[in-house]
Write a structure and sequence with these properties.
Shape: globular
Distance between the termini: 21 Å
Strand content: 5-15%
Order of helices and strands: EEEHHEEEHHHHH
Strand order of the largest sheet: 1-6-5-4
Length: 171
């Protein structure tokens, strides 16, 4: 998992009095997650894991609920953060953090609205709940298609990076 907080002048902008920053940052990540999944889950095997063994499959968030793509863990001492649960260890952390930060800042700059939380256990939810939810890419090819069409990827990463990720990661 990747945990993110946003600070300015040693002040956590995800804290209660600045909650709008967290909501917009979170909305930006949720809005762009399909486009950046290729870089968070670069191997073919990554996609066999998503949706299985408690790895997220749907583009959702919730406070405290571990079945969601993003959860807001309980906090002490104002250390509020978001936890993105889809990335795996094959991700390049520099690219992952760069893309997540840019996606979050895009949410803040464009004041993106945050979707409603999915306060349900998605591991046990039936089709009546999951059929209307957006999904993460289900294959590396689908993730590459989303990344290659992404204006955010084209803005943040050199074109050569995308070309490198076009080829499957060798284990």
């Amino acid at each position: 998992h990747i945990n993110l907080s946003l600070f300015q002048n040693k002040e956590n902008l995800f804290a209660q009095e600045h909650g709008r920053y967290m909501e917009a940052f979170l909305a930006g990540i949720l809005h762009r997650i399909r486009e950046i999944t290729l870089f968070l889950n670069p191997s073919e095997d990554s996609y066999m894991r998503l949706g299985e063994k408690k790895a997220p499959k749907y583009i959702t968030w919730s406070p405290e609920n571990r079945s969601q793509l993003i959860r807001i863990p309980a906090v002490k001492n104002g250390r509020k953060r978001i936890e993105l649960r889809s990335p795996d260890p094959t991700a390049n952390p520099y690219l992952a953090f760069a893309l997540l930060i840019y996606a979050g800042l895009d949410g803040i700059e464009n004041d993106l609205p945050l979707m409603e939380p999915a306060n349900v256990n998605l591991y046990r939810a039936g089709n009546e709940v999951t059929d209307h939810l957006k999904k993460l890419p289900e294959s590396r090819g689908e993730a590459w298609d989303a990344a290659s069409a992404s204006p955010l990827i084209k803005e943040v990463l050199p074109e050569a990076y995308l070309e490198v990720y076009k080829k499957p990661l060798k284990a």
